[in-house]
Design goal:
mainly beta; 4-stranded antiparallel β-sheet
Length: about 120
């Protein structure tokens, strides 16, 4: 069992910044990747940023140049630095972890709300 706990969400004005954190704990076997997704009611869940075990990063086109995903040395905590936030970034941001445990397994955090408004 793996638990993911996110923090760092909140309300900010357009152009502001937030830094999200996701800490993984529990029986972690072998992490393949960690990522941030976001969801808005009435819309699909979108991948925002992902970092793989070898350090490869991927970003949604809408956040390139504004968001940065990173991880700690233990590779069990990931961060999402969000700069120059826009109202369109408003969403629930959820942490995702994928690992190998006799097959691919993934876990989700409960999510943290990010609201960007004037």
């Amino acid at each position: 069992q793996v638990q993911l706990v996110e923090s760092g969400g909140g309300s900010v004005q357009p152009g502001g910044s937030l830094r999200l954190s996701c800490k993984a704990s529990g029986s972690i076997f072998s992490i393949e990747s960690m990522a941030w997704y976001r969801w808005v009611p009435g819309k699909q869940r979108d991948l925002v940023a992902q970092i793989t075990s070898d350090g490869t990063v991927n970003y949604a086109d809408s956040v390139k140049g504004r968001f940065t995903i990173s991880r700690d040395n233990a590779k069990t905590t990931v961060y999402l630095q969000m700069n120059n936030l826009e109202p369109e970034d408003t969403a629930v941001y959820s942490c995702n972890l994928r690992e190998w445990r006799s097959g691919p397994v993934e876990y989700w955090g409960k999510g943290t709300q990010v609201t960007v408004s004037s």
